[in-house]
Design brief:
Layout (H helix, E strand, L loop, with lengths): L1 E6 L2 E4 L4 E9 L5 E8 L6 E6 L6 E3 L7 E6 L4 E6 L8 E9 L5 E4 L3 E6 L1
Parallel strand pairs: 2-11
Antiparallel strand pairs: 1-3, 3-8, 4-5, 4-9, 5-6, 7-8, 9-10, 9-11
Length: 119
């Protein structure tokens, strides 16, 4: 089982930036993808971004392309989500995930971190 712990959430004004981090520990192994999902109040959980083990392959939801950047540091076993040009509709709980490549399935989930974007 992989344990994932997110950090970096908070309150920011529209147009601002935040960087989320997610540290993995436990039974990590080579070739697992990591990523982020989010869930806004009253809405279904949705995919945000994912990155491959090597970092060479990434995938983004259309709603965040050009604004969010996912990266990873395997030496630190950490994945990052740089979020720029934030919009009120980005407000959600963001969950870190780990699993099979960049398309999943993602069997390990973090506890989530709140991101709130004020207008």
């Amino acid at each position: 089982q992989v344990r994932l712990v997110e950090s970096g959430g908070g309150l920011v004004q529209a147009g601002g930036s935040l960087r989320l981090s997610c540290a993995a520990s436990g039974r990590t192994s080579n070739n697992y993808g990591m990523g982020w999902f989010r869930q806004a109040l009253g809405k279904e959980r949705e995919f945000v971004a994912a990155v491959s083990w090597t970092g060479r392959s990434t995938r983004y939801a259309d709603s965040v392309k050009g604004r969010f950047t996912i990266s990873r540091d395997n030496a630190k076993v950490t994945v990052y989500l740089q979020m720029n040009s934030l919009k009120p509709e980005d407000t959600a709980v963001y969950y870190c995930v780990a699993g099979n490549g960049i398309y999943g399935p993602f069997g390990s989930w973090g506890q989530g971190t709140q991101v709130t974007v004020s207008s």
